[in-house]
Amino acid sequence: MGMNQTPASERVHISFFGKRNAGKSSVINAVTGQDLAIVSSVMGTTTDPVYKSMELLPLGPVVVIDTPGIDDEGELGALRVRKSYQVLNKTDIAILVVDSTTGKGEEEFALLHKFHEKHIPYLVVYNKIDLLSVEEIKNLAMSVRAGEVLASAADGMNIQELKEKIATLKPEDTHQYPLIQDLIEPLDLVILVVPIDKAAPKGRLILPQQQTIRDILERGALSLVVRDTELKSTLDHFLAQGVCPKLVVTDSQAFARVSKDVPENITLTSFSILFARYKGELETQLKGVAALSSIEDGDHILIAEGCTHHRQCGDIGTCKMPEWIRNYTGKEPVFEFTSGTEFPDDVSSYKMVVHCGGCMLNEREMKYRIACCQDQGVPITNYGILIAQVTGILKRSLGPFPKMQELVP
């Protein structure tokens, strides 16, 4: 991904729901003006949620999501329906496509209930009105409420009206805090520590690093990216010239080494901690790390990641996290792992949840996962906070956030 591209996690997520053959895919293609979704008369053509990042005027950067039919049948069909409902957790705008020749049924009303329950703005589209008689269209039009549109993907009828209505539902920026801009001033020097090892993607920076650099640029400050192996010599060079960096931001895995190399008078934090504040709830995740002190043998701990990637030897989630936790607690808990969309609705069996920074998740989904844990009384923390705790530098790593430091003993 280039730095001039909006990350999927920062785009408005527009999800299309409906029964099989209601015409979801046809409506998506009509709204976007592209053949994004496969259209077929065969019921259940869409078997998994399909994601497409694009520009959609007048909304701007969006992710369009086509979902399996909510009336799918059988054991496999039930799994597909579950996948559709999982999409709700990341949906900013929901579009319910109804076959106007049959109207709403039990499945549609159940989905509308979920929209209200999760506070998701939505529209209802009565598709296929080209198949109705003039009299039937008149009768349906008389029953239409605000937030409902009569349309035909086949002939384009009212598709422009639908697009305009979707645009009115665009959510405002809900981030309570920026990523890093409020921590720095123009021309401040920020050093970003990026280890380059076998786990680092070849030829590119990972998303948190890219987003942080972009945020620093927008603030008019200066960013210098170095490896952990060159950090000390870099700092020595600048300090010898009388230049003191305003902030050092490191990859969490290098916390221990970086903390030793960075003088105490220079503020230190991690990409993961910045994202905990930006995308979730830093205080909640900071309090969650305290659960480490009460871990016992056999306790179940969920380690969750928002993305899917090829696991390597020494993988941070499946290898390093369990090792750090075992060494810190002296206990042998049972670890379970999820990635991508596979975050369980029921987390009550876990003693704690340890989540990645969530750079690949939009804000709605990250907050949903945190809320799941809070509602069920399960502590949740994230990678960076846990690593800072087990390496004994948690208080220091919260240097940019004095009020959060007060929560650390």
Automatic annotation (TrEMBL):
Hydrogen maturase F tetramerization domain segment(s): 284-399
Protein name: [FeFe] hydrogenase H-cluster maturation GTPase HydF
SUPFAM superfamilies in alphabetical order: P-loop containing nucleoside triphosphate hydrolases
UniProt organism field: Blautia intestinihominis
Domain of life: Bacteria
Start and end residues of each Hydrogen maturase F dimerization domain: 179-280
Listed Pfam families: HydF_dimer, HydF_tetramer, MMR_HSR1
Gene name for this UniProt entry: hydF
Residues forming coiled coils: none
Keyword Ribonucleoprotein: no
Keyword Nucleus belongs to the record: no
Keywords: GTP-binding, Nucleotide-binding
Matching NCBIfam families: GTP_HydF (TIGR03918), small_GTP (TIGR00231)
Residues covered by the G domain: 14-128
